[in-house]
Structures are given as structure tokens and as C-alpha cells.
């Protein structure tokens, strides 16, 4: 049985009250690990250690040393990629193929930020000859990083790489449902010769996250998760006006016009919605199809859905695993029933798949609800499971209006062969990412984040590093002379 501990001030340790939590397999609800469950008191120790490290030797590191550190972490991720991918699949239920892809993306993230950090230089400003005026980027300080259960180590990497690269110290709190890969990652960090307190792991639930958000000794909190927790973190952060980054949920339209390549659009509609059983913040779960091809499109999806291989993520032929927890399972089934009650037509799924192997664990059939209207709850709220809701639209203007009529603004996709229309839609959709004739690709070089209620700030890209820095104007007068403004 895997057992995990906290990592505080360079030491592995148990929580002060020796708390533990059983970690369950989403595939069969069996106990796969026992994780340390921290409380606020442990979080305070970690914050204090991070504070001491930031105010101490860590401030003296150079950009070259920090770039080297990030490259070294990438090497260790590559070395342990197979082990990490197995842990991620075991804990989240996602297929091994998906987890292997995640590990490649995680190493790429560390390498990208290593390159960016190494290229950082302050700017020298135009000033009188006896003055040195520089714009400096400095680390923010102690960073509290809070991550969700759907992409545990990937979301952590998007925060840890820029935070350490910019010279901050870190206290990370993964979701208490999925701490295993972040724990293994911390073992990799512990192999490195970092000053104690630079990197701290505190596994636990909402109260640990709340302590990071509230603490006056934390300078920045970066959170990925749902709107409910995001709101409370934003409020808590006002205590010392700490910097905040919020990556929240989405309700992401996947808009198919009649002139699209329909073979590709049908295929990608499945990928958009059922990748990682739909537990992707940018999942294209809100399918919108132009009236003239709507019935044919639904028919083609209905043919494909029963052929999707559901199963244990460790089996090679599996394309979709279970959802992550009993709570998610129940919530998704509730949303499907609410949709049917509001008048949506259940085309496929909406239940646990048949068969003994699916009796335990949190399994769901890929689900298609057709004839959904923009007013229905299932068209407005994030479902976060393997469910496509399909709406019909009659014009470009109607599609645009309905797609933008959501509090969220994370990602959207448009399918058309008309480049002019593709460009018009890309510009008019109020979402942080808009794909045309594709779904899901993202790069470390491109910013990730949402408009409106999908969050505040961006991760990845240069801005993803800048968010972990403060800007300073340093002005040095080399030859001061009395001004006489107030007389001699
Ligand atoms: P969640 O909000 O329940 O939990 C996220 C993290 O916050 C966990 O570590 C949790 O323990 C902690 N937490 C919960 N309540 C807290 C509080 N009051 N104060 C401080 N911390 C608290 O989210 P989840 O269910 O783990 O993840 C699913 C959500 O994450 C979905 O809404 C999804 O869209 C979103 N998400 C967004 C992105 C993105 O990039 N925008 C990426 C992945 C997931």
C-alpha cells in the first residue's frame, strides 16, 4: 500500500495530528493508498518554512541556477515518466495513454520555462546620464499553489515551473482525492540540493487551501478548480491583497457549421467531449450544430457512441475510463436527469454501463442529450463528465449569441471551411482559447486561461512566468545635487 507524507522545510513528516485519508481507485473503489491529511496547523508550518527560505538564501540564486534546476526536474520527470503515468492513471482513472501524454507535456513545461527564465533580463530605461533607471522583475515571494483532481501533476507543473523559475518559494496543495503524482514529484524535488523550505508539499482538503488563501505570509495564491472554491479564495486573498491567479471551470461550445468537413467534425466532437471522460475544464461538451445538418450529425454520433470502448485505463484498447469519484458520478447522473426533465432527448447513455466489471467504481456510459435549448440548465452549467448536450442553430448570429451567453469563457471551437467566417467567429467569441477545425491542442508557448467567470490571469506562455513576478522601477542617482526647490 502506498503511504504518503508531507514535505515541509526539507523534511518528510506526518501531519501534526497524524491524520490520514484513504485514496480510492475510481475503477473499483478499492483503497490504493493512504495519504497524509494535513490541517491548517501543518499548512502554517509549511508557509513559515517557505517564508524563511524566501527571505534567506533562495533570494541569492541566479536565473542560470534556476533554469538549470527546471531542466533537472524535466530530466527526472523523463526518468520516472512511466512510474508517474501509472500513478496518475491509478489515481484518476484516465487511460495510460493519456497519462503518458501528460508526463511528456509536464517535462516540456519545465523545459519551456527553463528557457524563458534563462532569457530574462531587466530593461534599462531612458534617463539622464547621471541616473541608472532599470525595470526589474523580482519574485513575488511565498506562493500557495492549489490544484484539482482532473490533471493533478499537469496543473501542478503549470504553476511550479514558473513559480520556482521566477525565484519564489512554494507550498503546494494537491486535491486530497489525487495526491499521488504530486507526492512522487516531491520525492524527485527532494533528490535535488534545494535549500530547506523552497518547496513544500501539504496534502489535505479545503481547510489547507483556505489557510494558503488567508495567510498574511503568503504573497500569491494560484488556484485551479471550481467556481465555488475560487470565489472563497478570491475573498480570502483580500486579507493582504495577495496576487491571485484563478483557473476555473468552463462551458465550452463546439460549433459546427453546415459547410464543415463532417467526418472530421463528428470524430472530434467525440474527442472534445469524452477525452478523460469529459473531466477537462475545456471539454467541448456543449455541441452546437447548424440546423440543416443537425439530424444527420446526431445520427452519426449515435452510431459511434456504443462503439466507444469503456474500461480500465491500463488496458490497451480502452478509450474512456471511469469518472473520478462517487460524488462526481452522482452529480453527472443528476444533471442528465435534470436535462431530461427540462425536455432534452436522451439519445445514448445516461447510466452505468452493464456488466459485472462496472458494478464497483464510478463508471458512466458516454452520453448524448439532443434537442437541448440554450435556456436549459445543462446548456449553462458545467457537467464535468462524459456528456454531450446538442443544440441546434439557424444562423451565424444565433450561434454566436448563444455561445457567448454563458458566464464562462474558457474555450470554444468552430468548424467551417469558410475562412472568413472562421475569422469572424474567432474574433467575436469571448473565450480564452478558440480553435478552428480542431479541438484541445495547447502549447507551453501559448497562454491558457479564461474570460469572465472562467478565471483571472493566464498560465503558460511568457505571461505565465510574469504572473509570478513583481515589477520594480529601480532609480539610482549617481551624482545628486541640491535642488533648491524650497529655497536655500
Ligand atoms: P475544487 O474547486 O473542488 O477543488 C480544487 C482544489 O481546491 C482542491 O485542491 C481542493 O481541495 C481545494 N479547495 C476546495 N475548496 C477550497 C476552499 N474553500 N479554499 C481553498 N481551497 C479549496 O475543484 P475540483 O473538483 O478539484 O476540480 C474540478 C474543477 O476544476 C472544474 O470546475 C474544472 O473546470 C476546473 N478546472 C479548471 C482548469 C482550468 O485550466 N481553467 C483546469 C482543470 C480544472
Automatic annotation (TrEMBL):
SUPFAM superfamilies membership: ALDH-like (SSF53720)
InterPro entries: Ald_DH/histidinol_DH, Ald_DH_C, Ald_DH_CS_CYS, Ald_DH_CS_GLU, Ald_DH_N, Aldehyde_DH_dom
Aldehyde dehydrogenase domain mapped to chain residues: 19-473
Gene3D superfamilies in alphabetical order: Aldehyde Dehydrogenase, Chain A, domain 1, Aldehyde Dehydrogenase, Chain A, domain 2
GO molecular function list: betaine-aldehyde dehydrogenase (NAD+) activity
Family indicated by similarity: Belongs to the aldehyde dehydrogenase family.
Protein name per UniProt: Betaine aldehyde dehydrogenase
Species per Swiss-Prot/TrEMBL record: Cupriavidus taiwanensis
Gene from which this protein is expressed: gbsA
Amino acid at each position: 500500500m502506498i503511504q504518503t507524507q508531507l514535505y515541509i522545510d526539507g523534511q518528510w513528516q506526518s501531519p501534526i495530528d497524524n491524520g490520514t485519508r484513504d485514496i480510492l481507485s475510481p475503477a473499483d473503489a478499492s483503497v490504493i493508498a493512504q495519504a497524509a491529511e494535513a490541517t491548517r496547523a501543518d499548512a502554517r508550518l509549511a508557509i513559515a518554512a517557505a517564508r524563511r527560505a524566501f527571505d534567506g538564501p533562495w533570494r541569492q540564486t541566479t536565473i542560470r541556477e534556476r533554469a538549470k534546476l527546471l531542466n533537472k526536474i524535466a530530466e527526472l520527470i523523463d526518468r520516472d515518466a512511466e512510474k508517474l503515468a501509472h500513478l496518475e492513471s491509478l489515481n484518476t482513472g484516465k487511460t495510460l495513454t493519456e497519462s503518458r501524454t501528460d508526463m511528456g507535456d509536464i517535462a516540456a513545461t519545465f523545459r519551456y520555462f527553463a528557457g524563458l527564465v534563462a532569457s530574462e533580463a531587466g530593461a534599462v530605461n531612458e534617463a539622464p546620464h547621471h541616473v541608472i533607471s532599470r525595470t526589474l522583475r523580482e519574485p513575488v515571494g511565498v506562493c500557495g499553489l492549489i490544484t484539482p483532481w482532473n490533471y493533478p501533476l499537469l496543473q501542478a507543473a503549470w504553476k511550479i515551473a514558473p513559480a520556482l523559475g521566477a525565484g519564489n518559494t512554494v507550498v503546494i496543495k494537491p486535491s486530497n482525492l489525487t495526491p499521488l503524482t504530486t507526492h512522487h514529484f516531491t520525492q524527485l524535488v527532494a533528490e535535488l540540493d534545494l535549500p530547506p523550505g523552497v518547496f513544500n508539499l501539504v496534502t489535505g482538503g479545503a481547510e489547507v487551501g483556505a489557510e494558503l488563501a488567508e495567510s498574511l505570509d503568503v504573497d500569491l495564491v494560484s488556484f485551479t478548480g471550481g467556481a465555488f472554491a475560487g470565489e472563497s479564495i478570491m475573498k480570502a486573498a483580500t486579507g493582504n491583497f495577495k496576487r491571485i491567479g484563478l483557473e476555473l471551470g468552463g462551458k465550452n461550445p463546439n460549433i459546427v457549421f453546415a459547410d464543415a468537413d463532417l467526418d472530421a467534425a463528428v470524430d472530434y466532437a467525440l474527442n472534445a467531449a469524452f477525452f478523460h471522460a469529459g473531466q477537462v475544464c475545456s471539454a467541448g461538451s456543449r455541441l452546437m450544430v447548424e440546423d440543416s445538418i443537425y439530424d444527420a450529425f446526431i445520427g452519426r454520433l449515435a452510431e459511434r457512441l456504443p462503439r466507444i470502448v469503456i474500461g480500465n485505463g491500463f488496458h490497451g484498447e480502452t478509450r474512456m475510463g471511469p469518472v473520478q469519484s462517487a460524488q462526481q458520478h452522482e452529480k453527472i447522473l443528476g444533471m442528465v436527469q435534470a436535462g431530461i426533465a427540462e425536455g432534452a432527448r436522451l439519445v445514448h447513455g445516461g447510466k452505468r454501463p452493464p456488466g459485472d466489471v462496472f458494478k464497483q467504481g464510478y463508471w458512466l456510459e458516454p452520453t448524448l442529450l439532443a434537442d437541448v435549448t440554450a435556456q436549459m440548465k445543462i446548456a449553462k452549467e458545467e457537467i464535468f463528465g462524459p456528456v454531450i448536450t446538442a443544440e441546434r442553430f439557424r444562423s451565424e448570429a444565433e450561434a454566436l449569441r448563444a455561445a457567448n451567453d454563458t458566464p464562462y469563457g474558457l474555450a470554444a471551437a468552430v468548424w467551417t471551411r469558410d475562412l472568413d467566417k472562421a475569422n469572424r467567429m474567432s474574433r467575436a467569441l469571448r473565450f480564452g482559447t478558440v480553435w478552428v477545425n480542431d479541438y484541445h491542442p495547447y502549447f507551453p508557448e501559448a497562454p491558457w486561461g479564461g474570460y469572465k467567470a472562467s478565471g483571472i490571469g493566464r498560465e503558460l506562455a511568457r505571461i505565465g512566468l510574469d504572473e509570478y513576478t513583481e515589477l520594480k522601477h529601480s532609480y539610482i542617482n549617481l551624482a545628486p545635487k541640491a535642488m533648491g526647490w524650497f529655497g536655500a
